[in-house]
Amino acid sequence: MFSRLSKSTRVLIAFASVYLMWGSTYLAIHVAGEHLPVPVVSGTRSLVSAVLIALICLLTGKNMSVPKDERWKLVLIGLLFMSANNMLLTWGETMMPSGFASLIVSTLPIMIALMEMALPGGDALNKRGWAGTLLGTVGITVLVWPSLHHHAVAGETTRPLLGTFVLLGAAFSFAVGSVLSRRFRFKADTFVATGWQIGSAGIFNMSLAIVTGGLHRAVWTWHGVEAIVYLSVFGSLCGLVAFTYLLQNVAVTKVSTYAFVNPVIAVLLGVVLLGEKMGSTEVLGMGIIVCSVAMVVYSRVDRGKREIVGMAGDAVE
Length: 317
Known about the structure:
The protein is mainly alpha-helical. It has helices spanning 7-35, 38-60, 68-92, 98-105, 108-118, 127-153, 158-184, 190-211, 214-217, 222-249, 252-255, 258-273, 280-302, 307-312. It contains 14 helices and no strands. α3 runs antiparallel to α7.
């Protein structure tokens, strides 16, 4: 049915899917983290997504095998994307509002740009890129300062500060994975490679949940299960398919808008559905971060290095 639609309609649906699904994953992660231990959330959603991918490959006759020399690389990328990144993000959202979390993690393209600049054969940032990087630092400070000040007055400075560093760690782990993934240049089918990455991370995450006793302590509530199902189906599977379609049919300059649209959607959903509140200073910080990411993204595109923008989108929130 989707194939019968006009290309412009398919593109519109794909954009709506990436914007809404990935923007809403922060809300679902927040809900899941409130009901279940972090490793259980990450392990369950990864395993469910991997099973769905395997079933699709089975039904479509797609071979799930990958070159032997790429297996360890896919496992490494999977652990960076869906273990370190996902678990740190879930943990960070237990300490920070989901809207704040999305804005802090949206600095991911900036981190990738800085890593690429430092590595041999990487791209140097132009003036716009450097300005965006500095502006992003200012934006994070403005965003979290009211919360830090409030807790400092109350004698509680740990959670917002720790939450900020945890979320930056989540973005950093995904940035490392993105840079490595670009350099590995996988020959395996993209959909199959994604299944290997998510599946290996799911096994690791669930093993960690068992070893730490998280699976034993887990109390399965309807809200927790619903959040995990949503993350598995819409965040990991449908969102990734829509994003891949856009990369193949739309200019990357347009696709990259997800980097600063998703946080806005996450903030609005947090305010409407979770009752999260944002003051004028925090709204200013949100605007600064969105602008800074846009500056860095488009500075990279201007230099003709479009791949780095695409890599940032493989983040399965």
